[in-house]
Design goal:
Blueprint (H helix, E strand, L loop, with lengths): L7 H14 L4 H10 L2 H14 L4 H13 L3 H17 L7 H13 L3 H10 L4
Helix pairs in contact: 1-2, 2-3, 3-4, 4-5, 5-7, 6-7
Length: 125
């Protein structure tokens, strides 16, 4: 069954259960967050970061969510925390090209503040 054929409420319920049974699925967490209200999406992404702390896509989604609400100070905090945590992780290597691609993706999706936050938070060597 495709999520697109479900109503938003049914999809939300199904994805809510899916992340319980497949907590390492980035796509399911992100899909669930997109279906939620702002407050619930924040909770979803916070839970996703607990399950997948080294997953850049989750951090970027959290920053974009805050930017959509004009919470630019929170965007800065999310990006700074992501950079700090990901740079300390043994499983993640932050490379300049990767961060630049992520910043370009944010810019093209309209998340200009998140893009700027990524670029200013990363130390390029």
């Amino acid at each position: 069954m495709r999520l697109a054929s479900l109503g938003a409420d049914d999809a939300r319920i199904m994805l809510g259960q899916a992340v319980v049974y497949c907590p390492k699925s980035v796509d399911m967490w992100l899909a669930l967050a997109r279906l939620e209200t702002y407050e619930n999406a924040r909770r979803v992404l916070n839970n996703a970061r607990k399950e997948l702390p080294a997953e850049l896509a989750i951090w970027i989604a959290a920053a974009k969510l805050e930017e959509a609400q004009n919470n630019n100070e929170v965007v800065d905090k999310v990006v700074e925390k992501a950079v700090k945590l990901l740079s300390m992780s043994d499983n993640v290597i932050i490379k300049r090209d990767g961060w630049l691609r992520e910043a370009e993706t944010c810019e093209s999706s309209g998340a200009i503040y998140t893009c700027g936050g990524e670029l200013s938070s990363v130390q390029f060597s």
